[in-house]
Amino acid sequence: MLKTILLLSPVYVTLFWSVILSLFPEEKTAPRAFLGKFMIAAFVVYVSHLLFFSSLSDIYCRLDPFYQLASLMVYPLFYIYIRLLTTDKHFSFRKHYHFLILPIVLFLFYLIGAFFAPADEYKKYVFNRSIVSDDTWIKYLKIVFFLMRVVFVLQVIVTISLNYQLIKKYGSKAAQYYSEIQDTSVAPIRLLNLFVVITAVSSIVLAVIGRDYFKHELVGIAIASAVFTSMLFIIGLIGYKQISLNPVPETLSPKIESTNEKELNVRPREEIIEKIKDVFERDQCYLNSQITIQDVANKIGTNRTYISSAINYYFQTNFCTFVNQYRIEKLIHVLQNEGDISMQHMADLCGFGSVDSMKRAVFARTNIPFNKWKEQILKSGCF
Asked: Which CATH architecture group holds 266-380?
């Protein structure tokens, strides 16, 4: 009974998130819906585990090819989910099919072997992958299965690496475009990716140990169930809350550009810098918590790429940090003149979108916790 409950835990969690993420139209977005597909694939995987350890051999044998397919689809689906969050606006079969084609091809090869292999031999092979058999189709299945395992490990490594690059690139681009990056924060996505890494590593470790080890090892099943159930629940919860990220125009560079004198000649350089300073110092546009680099470009009458290049090169920072420098100067002025007012009032007066954004900006600039920094300002009157 306890064994069944442990095996059912990840099944219930993946089923729950499959339904929630896929079937609620009022909350449905392309990334969230695709995370639902990830959960559906995971659901098939854990149903297969349940059948394997429950001695329902006939049902499991029929499901085994689909278990292999689901195992190979999980990480490509998660990678597409991260792409939809960070770079791609919507799913396109033409644009994304190549991430899914290898699992489907291997599945078809495996399905052919499962269909033509003698039923008794195939059943023995499914429950004992190391079985020695003279049957040609079993030998064929062993080769395909080995390729599947190699592809699975490569998928984990490549997916984790590519996800990290996508998240990092998006974070850099968001800082170039938005002044308030609370709604574009990649922290939850980094956390989500971390839990997927933990799940992936656990899957590889358990694959190396082999499922036969867990047939009569209740403690092992309990540990595996606890890890996968908790990780998958957290992944679903973070994905449910993180509906989408604000879009970032593709024309912006994700890094500080090394603009040289030829790209910005002297006269336009002086003019653009003076106009940027004028907009920030005279108009105090930084007090608008939602201001973007496009808004600044519109005020000055130029394009956002030119503004971004000027800020990157001449101030050696990105747009978000540049705006927050003005907000922090305003915050110092507020503290010196109005004293220790409420945190929310401070944030509102200085253009920060939230108290947390204000604290992060101060810490990023000073490397001092906000409360300690505030005490220094209040005591000394300057910083």
From this structure: Orthogonal Bundle (1.10)
